[in-house]
Amino acid sequence: MRHRSLLLATGILAAGLLTGPAAAEAAPQALPTCSLPVPAKLVINSPDSYIYSLKLGGGCPKTVADTTWWAVRPDGTYNFGVGGPWDSVTIWINKTPIGVTTRWTPEGYGRDSAGHNVARLLPATSMTKAGAAIGLTGVRKGTKTTLSARASYYSIKGKAFTRHHGRVLFQKRDLGSNTWTDLGWAYPNTKTGAASYVITTNRARDYRVYVPSSNTVWYAYSATKRV
């Protein structure tokens, strides 16, 4: 990262290879921009959840060999830094704070292998939470349709998915329609872990169920179930 550029520049000066005035750096406003394409929503759903080999934004010149972004917490403290050449930036999301915004703040400019400024680095933001999942089943008998859903979330401490105890929202959609309509909320049964909803209808419909976000867990939708 930046120390490589500093060492390289120091070595050149020591060898006396620079004679005459130093080449003028490009004005910051004239430089192309380089973005860190970190997703706004980062999800931890396995013991080794991480994002790797992120490619920088399309406008970033391929001559970039040195970049640095710092992960900054809302209180202004630094978490860790990431960087590297234009096509190889690694971010371990299990090192980012949970449930708060991380600001990816650039340090200086993107530099080429000779230490020259060749790109203006852009800031980014993200938020990390645990992943959630929810499954839906349904049975229609006569004019009664019974829906049942089981939600779970990834426990970062336990390193496994576990039962979700919060409420879930059942939704329906008429065949041929693109509009989802809320049916109602339900809490899971304390013994079975399943939330259920009964609707009276003699028609087939599409159904899905939604589990909302919390401070530490992302929202999730089930797959669509036609009953």
Low-confidence stretches: 1-23
Helix/strand class: mainly beta
Separation, N- and C-terminal Cα atoms = 56 Å
Strand adjacency order, main sheet: 2-10-7-4-5
Cα radius of gyration in angstroms: 26 Å
Please count the beta strands (DSSP E, at least 2 residues each).
19
- Tell me the series of helices and strands, N- to C-terminal: HEEEEEEEEEEEEEEEEEEE
Kindly report the average pLDDT value: 86
Strand content: 35-45%
Quickly count the helices: 1
Helix content: under 10%
User: What shape does the CA trace take?
Assistant: elongated
Q: Mind describing the biggest β-sheet?
A: 5 strands, mixed
List keywords for this structure.
227 residues; mainly beta; Immunoglobulin-like; 5-stranded mixed β-sheet; 5-stranded antiparallel β-sheet; 19 strands
Word description of this protein:
Keywords: Signal. The structure is a single chain. This protein is mainly beta. The protein has 2 domains: 97 residues; 95 residues, SOR catalytic domain (Immunoglobulin-like, Sandwich), CATH 2.60.40. The chain contains 1 helix and 19 strands. A 5-stranded mixed β-sheet has the order 2-10-7-4-5, with no helix packed on it. The longest helix has 13 residues. The N and C termini lie far apart (56 Å). The N terminus is likely disordered.
